[in-house]
Each structure stands twice: as C-alpha cells, then as structure tokens.
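Q: What would this chain look like folded?
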Amino acid sequence: MKTDDFDFELPEELIAQEPILKRDSSRLMVVDKKTGSISHHVFTDIVDLLNKGDVLVLNDTKVIPARLFGIKENTSAHIEVLLLNNIENNIWSCLVKPAKRVKDGTIISFGDGLLKAKCLEVDDEGIRKIEFKYDGIFMEILDKLGTMPLPPYIKTKLKDKDRYQTVYAKNIGSAAAPTAGLHFTNELLEKIKNKGIIICYVTLHVGLGTFRPVKVEDVSKHKMHSEYYEMNEETANILNKAKEEGRRIISVGTTSVRVLETVMNKYNYFCKCSGWTDIFIYPGYKFKAIDNLITNFHLPKSTLIMLVSALASREIILNAYNEAVKEKYRFFSFGDSMFIK
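A: My prediction, written as structure tokens:
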C-alpha cells in the first residue's frame, strides 16, 4: 500500500483558517461505512443520529501553550521550541527549529531568562530531550511565555485561545487539540445525555505521532511517535458493559480511537491503565474496540486519513472527500465534521 494512494486534490481556500462562530453549527457529513452512501447535515443533528444506549468516547486532554520562542545563549540565534511529551519532572521531548543549532548542552533562554532550557539529548527529525529550569510554577510560566501551537496550515491569528480547546478539556498535556471534539458545546452534550447516550472519557496527549507527515513510499514502513494515554476504571466498566450488551461504541476523534484500540489490543478487554502508544492504523487493520467514528476532514497522505480509510475503505473515504470538496466543506482543524456510521 502506497502513501500516494491516500492523496486527493484540495483547493487551498477550503482549509479553515478560523473557527466557525458557533461550535455546533459546523456542517456534518454522514457516511455509511458499508455502502458508502452520503448525507449532509449540521452538527447539531448528531443527537438524532445517535441511539439510546450508545457510548460516546471523548478525549479530555487539554492543550498547553506549547510553542516557545527563545534565544540561544552565546549566539543570540532565534530558536523555536514545541513541547511534545513530558518525560519526567521538567524534562520534555521537544521539536526544535532550526534543529541544527540545538546540540547537546545548548542553552536556550525565554522571556529574558524567566525560563531556560538545556538540550540533554539529540534525536532524529528535529526532536530533542530538553530540561527546563525556572522559578515558580511551570504552567504559569508557559501561560505567560508560550503560544497555542496551531498547525502550520492555519495562517490566521487565533482571537480566542479557548476555541482551540474542547469544552470538556481537563487533563493538561497536549501539543495539539483533539479537533473532532471542537464541535461540541455543553448544551449539545446535555441533549445527548438526556437522550440516554452514555458519555465517557479517555486521555491521549496529542503529540507528534498524530500529525507527523508520512515520508515513506510504503505505508507499512512509517514509524509513529509515541503518545501518552490513560483510561480510568469508570470508562473501562462502561465500555466493557457496552461490548457485552452489543451496544455501539462511538469514538470522537482519531485520538480516542488510538487509546481504545491500544487498550483492546493489549488486554483484550477495557481496564484502568496508562502508558505510551505508537499504534498505526491503516487499511487492513481489524477494529476490536470501536464501531463508529466522529472525525474531521484530514490532510492528504496523512496517518489520519489512513485511519479513517481503515474503518470504512479507501474508496469510500476518498469518494466522501471528493464530495466534500465539491460541496465546499471546510477542512482540517477548524473545519467541518464527518460521522462514519
């Protein structure tokens, strides 16, 4: 299977540059994963598309202002640092630019020395292990010095940083938002609960694994970066009961899928657990955990379009994407939504 098999033509004007005024007024394409049939809705219709007893699984990770701009000590070179994963205490895995300027022992200063970073280890592809030194509380310093790490295809400055968070974001640690969840409002979640649909949460701190481009020709040769996940006992119990009773498990976003499938592959049932996952899902994968998926429209040739193609099929998904282009759906992080039923 070739990476080019997941390519499609996307006019640049369809890449959403800012969030829609009301979260739940985005468009929703519904795709039948068996027949490929397509229907067009608004996101608030999701209440009618879900059944009593369905389980909706949300990723409650919270994005941190993970992008920092600093100065390399002794040379005054400008360095950009993107926090990816908290390895331990004040040591983070980071993506740095320009990477060639950051070697073992390099010191970077942010905010006139309010925060300092020392490179401990050099990895491939611009990744560095970095230790941060500061006085005070790290997250407060990040709030002061850091910016929201919007994807590079978004050129417009975000007016309200809360719009790059889900309304249920709780567990701090992501370098990017689980964007399928951006369409939900508290009012919509309440309507869903009132219909008898069960909502539960997992955590996956979105790092490089989700968004790193596929650079190899053969899909199977791509290596995912690991991301940290957690599942609590309450969620595990809800999911196990749903499985036993044959009720639908519907993942909100590909990040939730990756947690659920990781846990099921590892244990053959859902349980309280945490760890690191580098699961890579592409066509040929047999889903063990989820039945359906709410997701956004993804980049050509990305691991995300490969994942959704595994749930439906490459042909069905590419046909749906071509329909979305024709109907002028908004694409990517701040774009419209798809329900694969």
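The domain at 3-63+160-340 is CATH 3.40.1780.10 (QueA-like).
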